[in-house]
Known about the structure:
Layout: E1 9-13, H1 25-39, E2 43-48, E3 63-66, H2 71-81, E4 85-87, H3 92-104, H4 107-110, E5 114-116, H5 120-127, H6 129-138, E6 146-149, H7 152-162, E7 166-170, E8 180-182, H8 185-196, E9 207-211
Parallel strand pairs: 1-2, 1-4, 2-3, 4-5
Antiparallel strand pairs: 6-9, 7-8, 7-9
Amino acid sequence: MPLDKKIKKVLVIGSGPIVIGQAAEFDYAGTQACRMLREDGIEIVLVNSNPATIMTDKNMADKIYIEPLTLTTVKRIIEKERPDSILSGLGGQTGLTLCMQLAKEGYLDKMNVRLLGSSPEAIDKAEDRKIFKETMQSIGQPVIPSVIATDVETAIRFAGEIGYPIIVRPAFTLGRKRWRHCRRRNHASRHCRERAFHVAHSPDTRGKIHCGLEGNRV
């Protein structure tokens, strides 16, 4: 792919903490991105809250910020460093969520920062389960029965219609944070009330309920 001459300084968002037993693919991917950007002569600004990563090695970027991955932090770094582009797709859910919030509030346009890789529209289609379902149906792809719910009563009523087991999860996420496989009504009700509709730092507080595929051939 030819180098876009307009790209001269890129802000790379890291993935944050990596717990024991969790795959470190985002650290690996982010590190490789920094190496490729450097080979093309592009200045790299990196922000990551986790210093125990390969990507935060001093040789990986021109400027490295070990700070909390929040909107306030990212905005401050953008205003100080003035990157022309931002790379979010290699920081997992954290990077995607931050960049989506910046794009939707118009901050990236205001600061003339280009979102590299996936567009906000593409990220929305992948993360918002209602939009994803509608997109699949529009091209004739089969989807399992599901509903986006804003309250526990709607979720449990739909579960009764499709039968158990079901999967209860937040409506806006790519990872498996706060997913639960529920085999009985009381389990589903408790999980909905305690976790599914309350995801920290999520721009969406809806829950998604869909049928479980355990024991089915797909």
